[in-house]
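note to self: dont lose this again. the chain is below, predicted strucutre after it. 64 aa total, dont forget to put it in the shared folder this time
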Amino acid sequence: MSKPVPEEQLAAQHYVTVIMRLLVDQRGRLVHGEIIDLQSPTQRPFNGWRGLLHALHRLIAGTE
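---
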């Protein structure tokens, strides 16, 4: 069984809820898309997997 997380650690964390709209090709490869932050009007377009990770990182870094 896991140990309870201290309250001060929980207070320093929060959830970020996003929607991802993805365009994939016939072989299931990610072409491009956008990440939409539900807590703000932010939309982050991206191309490919690296672009997805970069866009997600930028969005999360902007919410801290």
